[in-house]
Every structure is written in structure tokens, then in C-alpha cells.
Automatic annotation (TrEMBL):
<dbReference type="GO" id="GO:0006284">
    <property type="term" value="P:base-excision repair"/>
</dbReference>
<keyword id="KW-0479">Metal-binding</keyword>
<dbReference type="GO" id="GO:0046872">
    <property type="term" value="F:metal ion binding"/>
</dbReference>
<dbReference type="Pfam" id="PF03352">
    <property type="entry name" value="Adenine_glyco"/>
</dbReference>
<feature type="binding site">
    <location>
        <position position="5"/>
    </location>
    <ligand>
        <name>Zn(2+)</name>
    </ligand>
</feature>
<keyword id="KW-0472">Membrane</keyword>
<keyword id="KW-0812">Transmembrane</keyword>
<keyword id="KW-0862">Zinc</keyword>
<feature type="transmembrane region" description="Helical">
    <location>
        <begin position="141"/>
        <end position="160"/>
    </location>
</feature>
<dbReference type="InterPro" id="IPR011257">
    <property type="entry name" value="DNA_glycosylase"/>
</dbReference>
<dbReference type="InterPro" id="IPR052891">
    <property type="entry name" value="DNA-3mA_glycosylase"/>
</dbReference>
<feature type="binding site">
    <location>
        <position position="167"/>
    </location>
    <ligand>
        <name>Zn(2+)</name>
    </ligand>
</feature>
<keyword id="KW-1133">Transmembrane helix</keyword>
<protein>
    <submittedName>
        <fullName>3-methyladenine DNA glycosylase</fullName>
    </submittedName>
</protein>
<dbReference type="GO" id="GO:0008725">
    <property type="term" value="F:DNA-3-methyladenine glycosylase activity"/>
</dbReference>
<dbReference type="InterPro" id="IPR005019">
    <property type="entry name" value="Adenine_glyco"/>
</dbReference>
<feature type="binding site">
    <location>
        <position position="163"/>
    </location>
    <ligand>
        <name>Zn(2+)</name>
    </ligand>
</feature>
Amino acid sequence: MQTYHDKEWGVPSRDERYLFEMLTLEGAQAGLSWLTVLKKRKAYQQAFHHFDISTCARMKDVELEEILRTQTVVRHRQKIYSVRGNAAAIQRIQKEQGSFASYLWSYTQDKQIVHHWQIESDIPAKNELSECISRDLKKKGFLFVGPVIIYSFLQAIGIVNDHVWGCSLYLQE
């Protein structure tokens, strides 16, 4: 957890594959601890072709069923199938807007939002931005993109920097 916090969480990213990976992992985390999902991250990378978007969008039911039977991932049928559907939805956004990253970062005019929370308990589970993006993603056919999941996703990919005062990464971009 510390390595993830220090090396990834809150670091701005525009890498399509990484964005897809984080969206998938955040969706998988729903109802579970983040540590549980992080421990399964390598299995997710292996099962989902290192999050190659076009490959995941073409996955067949038989392959998804095999993942449910044999992989060390969160074995939740809708979460597994959502990976394929979300990959296809990302492809539609890429076609319309050039990239998934451009779509996401357009909500903040390509600027990171830095909050000035004093302690972790000040950090909200969701906000207006995550609610807005969640609604739009759902309209575009995404699954497991509720406002709480999206807020965590925005933190993970660095659109939102919620490192608290006293953290060595506070105010770093």
C-alpha cells in the first residue's frame, strides 16, 4: 500500500492503458478493500492482456468465463464482463474525442485539482465532479462507474490530488 501511495496514487496520468487498468481495478474494488485488489493486480494484468484496450474489447464470453473459473481475480461475473464492455466504451470515446485521457482531463481543463485536506477523514467519498463524470460514463455504456468509484479513480490517476497536509506528496504534481 505504501509503495502504491508513494509511486502512483495522485500522480497525473494520461496513459490510456493505465487509465483503463485503474478504472477496472477501482470497479473491482467496490465492496472490498483496496489492499485486496492490489494483491490481485498481477492476476488482473495477466487475465486482461495487460489492459490492452482493443484486445479486452474483443474478448469472448468463453475467455471471460475461463477467467471466472481459473484466475485469482475478484470472481464477480458482472465485474469481469464489465471489463470488456468498458474497453469497448473507451474505444468509442477514443474515436469521438481522440483519447480517453482527453475526455477525462477535459472536465478540469487539463489541470489537476489539488485539495487542501488536513487529515484523511476530511476527504470525501465523492463530489460534484465524480457525480458528473459518473453520469456521463453510464450514459456512454460503462459499468461499475458510480460516483464513489469515479472519485477514487480520479484520485488514482491524479486528476484529483488528495494528499493531505503533512504528507510528503502534498502539493506535488
